[in-house]
Amino acid sequence: MRLLTHNMLSCNIKGVTNGFPLRIEAEKVVEKQVDFNADFLKNMFPKIEWKALVAAAKSMGYTDLPDQAESSMIDSEEFLKKFHHALLQLHLEEGALICPETGRRFPVNKGIPNMLLHEDEV
Amino acid sequence: MASRPELQAPPDIFYDDAEARKYTSSSRIIEIQAELSERALELLALPDDGVPRLLLDIGCGSGLSGESISDHGHQWIGLDISHSMLSVALERDVEGDLIHSDMGQGLALRSGVIDGAISISAVQWLCNADKSSDEPRLRLKAFFESLYRCLGRGARAVFQFYPENLAQRELILGFAMRAGFAGGVVVDYPHSTKRRKEFLVLTCGPPSLGAAVPNGKGENADSCSDNDELSGDDENQTVCISDRHRPRKRQKTNKKGKGRQWVLKKKEQMRRKGNAVPPDTKYTARKRKARF
Fold it and tell me: Model's pTM, two decimal places?
């Protein structure tokens, strides 16, 4: 699971108002090569929650992202490369995602998070 | 014909390891799924600017449809309830991220982040009550509401599905409308039983110029645009006030009635159509006594 997907995921247990972002417990992180596409990154940038991305990247072991990001920074090639690396090339293979409000663990196996809710959580 | 898979078992049980493998190794299924995915992406009407978008593949299964999305250069997130199908997708090394989840529990996604959604041969599974705690209506509601929320403004959702009957199609459409979607059903090759395919095309946000429901393929294809039904339902929900004391318009009857000329004209029309019509005689449209 890439951080792109993690940045979109929010806990949808019944009654939870603050289910984003999910905290990452990383057990196994893998780096994969993905083609660089500046257009995609510039298009995605406004939708990304930057703080969540930085925190997630840190928990996966990548600390090169700047803490703050303004839209003027997307013109910088260097920034885009870091953004690309964090967003698309870091994969969480094994670990868990934890809901910030309820503490519920969503396990991640082989890169697939299990977001199935129990009957009482729907 | 074999019975529908939806009537045999819940999707996570029906698509076990053996079935998942069989499904994905059938060249016929691969071909059909690719064709459906291509058509769905076409109906999604993403801007043709070469910018990759972030799409959802709902009920992605073993990634057959996701591969079409990747071929078009877009990023995608796939959701499926069957662990076996997702395992096959992993083996095929698909480019999109996979999430093991149940669409009837709602999509666990933030608001307004998705640029479009497709679903191939999946949403009809929502209409079955598999567990005793399931209620298809609640599941449909949760699914469409969460989908509406996570789609960005102007984004579309295209579902290719196999409704069991008219009632099921209306049910799904109804919940989509209630969640705030506009749109309708596009039917490709409506007159061919084999090739007929239905696509539910939903749009978010106010309808724009480009948001007219597209036409289906095939000769004499109509887009069964249920736009009217979608908006008409709103009208039916208004309260009717009946006033007994308001004078009713009397039905105006033409005392002249329909004369001989009219009858002769009608008989000629029927003859032209090919119906068996008695010949015209002096007795045709003769004035009869009031009590015939």
Answer: 0.76
